[in-house]
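Incident review: delayed structure delivery

Summary: a single-chain prediction request sat in the queue longer than the usual turnaround. Root cause was a stuck worker, restarted by the on-call engineer. No data loss occurred. The affected request and its eventual output are reproduced below so the record is complete for anyone auditing the incident later.

Affected input:
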Amino acid sequence: MVLNGIDVFVRVVQAGSFAAAARDLGMPTTTVSARIARLEERLGVTLIQRSTRRMHVTEAGQAYFGHCVEALNALEAGESQLAAAGSEPSGLLRITAPSDIAGTVLPALCERFLEHYPRADIDLVVTNRQVDLIGEGVDLAVRAGPMRDSTMLSRKFVSGSLGLWASSDYLGRHGMPASLEDLARHQIIRFSRMPESFRLVAGGHSYTLPERSRISADDLQTIRAFVQRGAGIGLLPDFNAVTPDAPLVRVLPQFGTEPAPVFFVYPAQRFLTLNVRAFMDLAREPA
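Output delivered after worker restart:
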């Protein structure tokens, strides 16, 4: 089997254009186009339809792309395994995480990783959508909640609870709630991805938050921004709320959610790449 051109094809699909792939690969666009053409000629099928303005990956190209990515990942994992004994992490580690995690617990860990391994780099893809790790060339994801994809493996990273938080300015204007009943008189900023019947727990009992809310958002960083501005009381993870730049005040601290785990998620494969293994191992060490 001839591998020449497969890596170029994968990069073109991931980058979304021949020009972007050429920049990533450090080669002329004409060379990228010629390698794709030779690959298509060898296979006897059109993988990418292109015009002067856009490109379209054919159905055959999409199917072939999935196999190519798996093959290249397997080769990379094999090389990393062979080199692991006498080497250290190097090159690019691509990580994806939602904004609330990417902006809080990950920066310090990323800094430690770069300090430990000066030959390594990190590209952090911040998004709340569930990234296709294999299809988009991402090495590691940080995700909350249970795993439902059997093609992925996971390792626990941290656990966290959500609680009620407000700014000092808001509490100065509206007062500190003394009970759950008092929350009915306050502006609650809801996390819209939580079910309407969402409940807080304390002392073996559970309680439902007031349903009325004039502000809701599907992103915890956005909720934190509203809370910082004094717009109301928001439900936030502890690690998201306790930051030195703009500290918030815990409201009714006896109430919170059950602790929920956050996981590292990575494609199921026989050998972990050295970069992924080293990053996850470092997360286990005390800061």
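Verification: Residues 162-258 form a domain with the D-Maltodextrin-Binding Protein; domain 2 fold (CATH 3.40.190.290).
Action items: add queue-age alerting; document worker restart procedure.
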